[in-house]
Amino acid sequence: MVSSLKELIDEPELWHSDDPEERFISSGVSWENYESLLAKLEDNSHYRVTYLDGILEIVSPSIRHEKIKKNLAMLLERFFYSKRIRFTPMGNSTFRNKAKKAGAEPDECYCIGEEKKIPDLAIEVVVTSGNINKLEIYRRLGVAEVWFWQRNQLKLYHLRDNQEKEQATVYPDTYGYEQIAKSEILPELNISLLEQCISISDSIQAIDEFEQGLKGNRQ
After folding, report:
1. What residues are paired with 156 via a beta bridge?
2. Per-residue pLDDT for 11 more than 70?
3. Using 50, 70 and 90 to split pLDDT, how confident is the model at 10?
4. Which intervals hold domain Putative restriction endonuclease (predicted)?
5. Mean pLDDT computed over every residue of the chain
6. Kind and range of the H or E element at 191?
7. For residues 37 and 105, is the Cβ–Cβ distance under 8 A?
């Protein structure tokens, strides 16, 4: 792996490694360098870049990470279709705010209803722990709900604090987010069913069991 941000930006070829999940972290990074790196990686969607108060984190996701991400998105979109919920998938688009010194690329994210500049829901698949607190970034960006998939379960957080404040005053330990058991933007979604089906490696079986569960919930 490269040893400095400058080396990464200047290197004509991005690093390669046999490690299934690479993580690069650097502090004291200017906003200009962050944007320079985003420009360099514009045509390479494999890397996830996160920025908060001068700390930069770049992750090269593992195959396991990507399988979980795709399974989750596939099932969630099946739920949208079955419930006739209008949505806009925004994938791992980059969202950033220079004034708030924050930027992130969720693993998956969605606008519910009409399309917006900032998604209503951001999803993060956590395989290895990072050094940047994603909830603080999403608070500053104003994302209403954030889900983390970790250790085969989902942890859901809903924003209660005003992102215009410098620091969260409501639920400060979780950066203005309250941990919730049920999604507030998708109240009909059975989270336990979704968790169960995300872990099924066979996509057809996962969809079948998920859709059967959705039908069971309607009965």
Report:
1. 147, 180
2. no
3. low
4. 31-191
5. 88
6. helix 191-198
7. no
